[in-house]
Each structure stands twice: as C-alpha cells, then as structure tokens.
Amino acid sequence: MLIRISAVILIILCGAFFGVDRSEKLKKRVDLCRDIEKMLYICEYSIKSSDEDVYGITKRIEEADLPGICFIKNIPVSYKAGANFRVDWERAVFKSQLPYEERNLLIEFGSVLGTSDTERQLRTISAFIDEVHTLYEQRRFEYMKKSKLYRTLGMLAGIMIGIIII
Asked: N or C end of the chain: smaller count of CB under 10 Å?
C-alpha cells in the first residue's frame, strides 16, 4: 500500500510539473516578444543617432544582452569579403529554434534592415514595432488565459491517474 501511495504522489507531482512546464513555455513566448520589441527600439535608436551599418547595429543588440535574441551571437560583427548579411541573419534565426510567427517576423526584419535610406528604415522599424506589439498582446492574452488552465489540468490529470492506480 505504501508503494501505491508513493506512486500516486509521484504521478500527481509529474502532472503538476507538466502543467507548470507548459505554462512556462507560454511565458517564454511573451518574454520573447518583449525582447524582440526591445531589439527593434535599439535598431531604431542606432539608426537615428549614429546612422550605423547593420554590423554596428547587431553589435549593439548583442551588447544589450536580450535572452530571447540569442541568435544574434551567430551573426558576424563586421563585414567580411563575400559575406551576405541577410543570409547570415536568416541562417542564425533558423538555427535558434524560435516559434513560427516570431521567426518569420525576424527573418522579414533582417531582409529589410539596411536596405534603404534612414527615413524609410525608421518607418519600417515603426511598422515592425507595431506588429510585434500586437503579437506581444496576443501572447500575453494567451498566457493569461491558458497558463492557469495548463497548471490545473496537469494537476487534475495526475490526481485522476492516481485515483485509477489506487
């Protein structure tokens, strides 16, 4: 009987941890959107203040130490002969295993970064900031709505399986 009770407690804990894990994944997506928004503000500031090239901007982003933007470490910090910034950016984003919407947004941003004059780039970055903010609100709403559900369902599934074992 002691073994069954221990098994039931272990299963309940596993269910609870599973629910918490799913909830944390939702929270990480919210944090990622916030980091992308900060990255866009850094790009906007860099273009406004010093009119830096794309490699200078990536260096500033890397120095900002945004945990969700870890792919930036895989992009060269200076131009090398034969290098293509957009290809390097896209390759780095794909390697980072980001969620689908965020990955596509970052790839699209990387393809337009540094391709036009200052004013047009600033307008493009503003449009991306609006898009990321909308995505952030969507992710935050999803987190608020589903995180408690995941934790509760995990716990209840553990309890249900535990009752079946007893």
From this structure: N
